Amino acid sequence: MKISYFKIRDKFDFSPDRFEIGNPLIQSWHFNHNHLFKKIYSLPACEYNAFYDYHLHYFLGSSPDQQQQFFENFSRLTSERIAYYKMQDPFSSRQKTYQSNLIKLESFQSFLRSIDQWHVFDPLESVIAEKSRLIDQLTAENAQLKEQLKAMKEYETSEKIGIVENHLGTFVDLLLQMQELTLPVEKKTLLRVQGKSAWYKLLSRYFLHGGNPIPIETARNYFSGKDDDASAKGTRVRKEHKLFIISKMK
């Protein structure tokens, strides 16, 4: 079964879509390409994209996800027709028509080149060079990521600090108190950070509770609001877990 790439007008259809191709009376598969290019010769360059999309949409109706196949076929037909006109006798009585058609085809081929995302028109050397460039780029990015990973591992520890079971709240209470510490002379907050993420990520990343990892959501809930704010969502440290008070020396 032959693949129908282009929308052919129906027989005896005298009101076709302006982008349909073919003859309403005499229809032959062998002449479809002639009708295709006859239509292209009549189009202004500003309508090339709409014409291409019209037939692409028709083709995809029976061949989904085959945009590349459609493009390659259309490009091949165009290149073959250009080659045909270039081989014609320059002294032929029809040379003026040939030249006019050739100019139109080369204009349409320029449009095809502008939408060529599959490198159909690129010479093999250019494709290889582009792939080599991408490989070099990815190799450099991979090396950079490896260096970043190596640098990050410098801050990794072989083990995490364990918090006694049932006393996660006790340790969190100490962290919350540390947020409020103020230097007695400078009257400045000792520890400064924008937001709360540094605190709960520190807790989740470097500490264990009863020998088990502390989920990031569990840690985040403790730092969602002030401990004395009853309206704040999150986990509040229970009174019986507040065992220590951090205070300045007298």
UniProtKB/TrEMBL annotation:
Keywords: Coiled coil. It comes from the Bacteria. Residues 128-158 form a coiled coil. This is SlyX family protein.
